[in-house]
Design a protein that fits this description.
Aldolase_II/adducin_N; 217 residues; 14% strand; L-fuculose-1-phosphate Aldolase; alpha+beta; binds zinc ion
C-alpha cells in the first residue's frame, strides 16, 4: 500500500478532529502531502471519521490526478487542499474544520485579531477570506490567494483552514485558532478586548523557536 504512514495519519487526525470538538458530523477534512513521492493522502468524502480505515484514504497528485484505480471519492474540498499545497511549498499537511468559535468569528466577516499570544501559531492575526460555495474552485482560489505567509485563514461563514510542516503542526495551528477565537468571543461579550501589537507576536514566535525539552544526550 503506498503512503501507508500518511494514510494512518489521515485516519488518526480525522478522529482527533472529533475528539477535540473541532468539527461536527462528517464536516472538515485533513490531508498529508509526501512531497518526495509527489502523492497527497486525503480524507474520503462523507465518511464517519471513526469508520475510516487506511485503505479508504484517497491518494491524489498535485495536478488533481488519482493514483489508484479503485479509489473512493475524496473530500469535496480536495481542490482547496491542492491549491494551498501549490502556493505553500513549506506545507506538508492541512486541517480544515468547522470549529464553533472560529466559524462564529468567520460569520462576522473580520480577521481574528491578536487577543492572545497563541495566535502567533498562525501569524499576527488570522485573516478572513471571502465566501464561496464549498467544494468550488472559487473557494479554493480565495483561500490560496489570501493565505500569504499565514499558517491559517478563516473562511467567511464557513470555518477555518490550517497548514503546517507536519500533521501534528497543522493540527496544533487549528486547535489554537479555535482557542483564540473562543477567547475573542468571550472577551468581546464582556467588553472591548485589548489587541496585542505586532512586536508581542514576533516576540512570541521567537519564544516558540526555543520551546520544549532540551535534549540532554
Ligand atoms: Zn468545510
Amino acid at each position: 500500500m503506498i503512503l501507508r504512514e500518511e494514510r494512518e495519519q489521515v485516519v488518526e487526525y480525522g478522529r482527533k478532529l472529533m475528539e477535540a470538538n473541532l468539527t461536527t458530523g462528517t464536516g472538515g477534512n485533513v490531508s498529508v502531502f509526501n512531497r518526495e513521492e509527489g502523492y497527497i493522502a486525503l480524507s474520503p468524502s462523507g465518511m464517519d471519521y471513526f469508520d475510516v480505515k487506511p485503505e479508504d484514504v484517497v491518494i491524489m497528485t498535485l495536478d488533481g490526478g488519482f493514483v489508484e484505480e479503485d479509489h473512493l471519492v475524496p473530500t469535496t474540498e480536495w481542490g482547496l487542499h491542492l491549491g494551498l499545497y501549490k502556493v505553500r511549498p513549506d506545507a506538508s499537511a492541512i486541517v480544515h474544520c468547522h470549529s464553533d468559535y472560529a466559524t462564529a468569528v468567520s460569520c462576522l466577516g473580520i480577521d481574528l485579531p491578536a487577543v492572545n499570544y497563541m495566535v502567533a501559531v498562525a501569524g499576527d492575526r488570522v485573516p478572513i477570506t471571502p465566501f464561496a460555495v464549498y467544494g468550488t474552485p472559487e473557494l479554493a482560489k480565495n483561500v490560496a490567494d489570501n493565505i500569504g505567509d499565514y499558517n491559517a485563514v478563516l473562511m467567511a461563514n464557513h470555518g477555518q483552514i490550517a497548514l503546517g510542516r507536519s500533521m501534528k503542526a497543522a493540527f496544533t495551528v487549528a486547535l489554537n485558532v479555535e482557542y483564540v477565537a473562543r477567547l475573542y468571543i468571550l472577551a468581546k461579550s464582556a467588553g472591548e478586548p485589548v489587541i496585542l501589537p505586532k512586536e508581542a507576536i514576533e516576540g512570541t514566535q521567537r519564544q516558540f523557536a526555543s520551546y520544549g525539552q532540551t535534549k540532554k544526550r
